[in-house]
Each structure stands twice: as C-alpha cells, then as structure tokens.
Amino acid sequence: MTKSPDRTPLTRDFFARDVLEVAPDLLGRTLVRREPAGTIELRLTEVEAYAGEIDPGSHAFRGRTARNSTMFGPPGHTYVYFTYGMWHCLNLVCGPDGHASGVLLRAGEINVGAHLARERRISARNDKELAKGPARLATALDVDRDLNGSDLFGGPTPALSILHGTPPPRDLVRSGPRTGVGGGGAHQPWRFWIEGDPTVSPYRAHAPRRRPSRKAT
Q1: What is the total count of domains within the chain?
Q2: End-to-end distance of the chain based on CA atoms, in angstroms?
Q3: Is 206 contained in some domain?
Q4: Taking 70 as the threshold, does the pLDDT of residue 67 lie above it?
Q5: Degrees (nearest 5) of the Cα angle 105, 173, 27?
Q6: Which Enzyme Commission number(s) are listed (predicted)?
Q7: Contacts 24+ apart (CB under 8 A), 77-82
Q8: Inside any domain, residue 217
Q9: What is the pLDDT of residues 166-182, one digit of tens each?
Q10: What's the CATH number where 57 sits?
C-alpha cells in the first residue's frame, strides 16, 4: 500500500539551515502553487544548491545586486530569475538572514492540477516531461518575476508553499555536479536527485559559448 504524502506544512526553520542540508532534504517534498485558475501540486525530484558569496556558480558570488537581493534572505522566500531572454527559474532562499544562498528547483512530478500544466507545456510529450527541467518547472507552474520575493509562509494561502510530502529513502538520493555550471563552480557535487525517477532532467556539462570567428576579407 502506497503511503499518502504528509500534508503538514514545513516551517521557516526548515529553510534557516545551511543550503547543503536544505537541498537534499527538499527531495520528495510537495510544492504547492495556488493561482486563480486552480492549484498545482508537485513532488520535487531534482534540485541544486547555490552557496552565495563562497560559490563561483552562484548569482550572489560577487555580492548583492538589484537582481539577486532576495537571495540574501530572510529564508523561506523565493528567488525567481529570468535567463536566456526566454525562461524563468524558481529558487527557494535558505540559510541565515543576510547570507545569500538558495536551492534551484530543477524537476518534479505533478500530481495535482496536471491539466493546468499541460495548457502551458504544450510541447511536453507526456506528463513526466511537464516539469522536467527548471525552465519547464517554472513554466508549468506559471512562475515569473512577479513571484520573486514571495513568502512561502505569507498567510493561510500563499501563492507558493511547501508541504512535508514523502521524502525518499536515503539510498535513493544521489548527488553530482550541477548542470551547465562552469568555471570555479563546475565540480561541486551540489545537484541532488532521486535515483531512477523518470521526471529527473538529464545532466549536461557546461559548454562555453563560442565567439563567432572573424573571416578574412
């Protein structure tokens, strides 16, 4: 008999810990997205940790800016950024207030409200692909910069919240290098995922952008 996910909300203290504790502990948790069209619930299956000023792969490595200011806390808020001029990505802020760190939500399984996600992810070949990758996840949940800084604990019905869910057995939690991160942040094993879950996105190493070659005239 399959055990039903625990619907107890997580607390802010859950996020007020080191990012490398929070990130793997988010696997199997239930992310709830509430909007006028309805509610979507997603079981998190893949995440990445970013450790702020000590992490060359983090947006906050060189300090606070207007773009990354929400990463500096308080914990339990969202950091949403726009990338490649096309996509949004959703992060959950953690760690002590004033020290930037966050967890990128990379993938998950939508268990409630899949019909809403399908309307936004029309290119998905099946429901396992609805939130398979960080941009797909944000698109499926209708997340954009309007939700940047949203408080997971902001009242009885916040736009985004996290429930206890069903964490996986520890022997199914894997870690490895983060996807697409280059330079000094390339090799930290700070990507975490549930082994064998079909919603986990494929790993891709960083590929430096090539500048167009100058043709002789």
Answers
A1: 1
A2: 72
A3: no
A4: yes
A5: 35
A6: 3.2.2.-
A7: 77/149, 77/150, 77/151, 77/152, 78/147, 78/148, 78/149, 78/150, 78/152, 78/160, 79/148, 79/149, 80/138, 80/143, 80/144, 80/145, 80/147, 80/148, 81/145, 81/148, 82/144, 82/145
A8: no
A9: 999 999 999 999 999 99
A10: 3.10.300.10
Predicted confidence at residue 216, as pLDDT, reads 42
Assess contact for 78 and 92: CB atoms under 8 A: yes
**Whether residue 217 has pLDDT greater than 50:** no
Q: Could you list the residue range(s) of the whole structural domain that residue 123 is in?
A: 4-192
CA angle 162, 157, 103 (to 5 degrees): 30
The three-class DSSP label of residue 6 is strand
Rg (CA), the chain: 17
- pTM tops 0.90: yes
Q: Where are the beta strands (DSSP E) in the chain?
A: 6-9, 30-35, 38-50, 78-83, 87-93, 102-112, 160-165, 173-176, 191-194
Angstrom distance (rounded) from CA 130 to CA 141: 10
**C-alpha to C-alpha distance for 209 and 205, rounded to whole angstroms:** 13
Residue 137 lies in a domain: yes
Amino acid at 211: R
Q: What are the beta bridge partners of residue 174?
A: 193
